[in-house]
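Appendix B, record 7
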Amino acid sequence: MKKAVRVLLVDDEELYAESLAKVLRRRGMVVATAKDGPMALAWLEANQADVVVLDLKMPGMDGIATLEQIRIRKPETAVIMLTGHIDLERVTRALQGGVGDILLKPCPVDSLASAIENARERRLAAQALKEREGV
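Structure tokens (predicted):
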């Protein structure tokens, strides 16, 4: 039996994050939410996520700054960016920072769920490759 995907949703729009979390939970995922970057980083210090779904544009610590800290603290964690606004500079920085996918809000739940599953599979494959190579 496949283990449930552990997801952290980070979005300053708390109602949006909670409604999205509810739908993903119904699909069998274990989902936590955080309303900003500092809260997400604190949660990641105490917990493990397979995938972080991160809003690009947030007040204070934005998605790029949060991504940079995730890469420093938990480099193995897969990250998907959500954004309601296309900003080519930020999108480029996110991709350079190792984001697996960038999805536009409002994102169909099926698309997000597929992106989460794919991100976890890529992460597991990379881990298996490292273990096989003895890295």
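Remarks on this record: The mean pLDDT is 90. The helical segments are 14-26, 37-46, 63-73, 88-96, 109-133.
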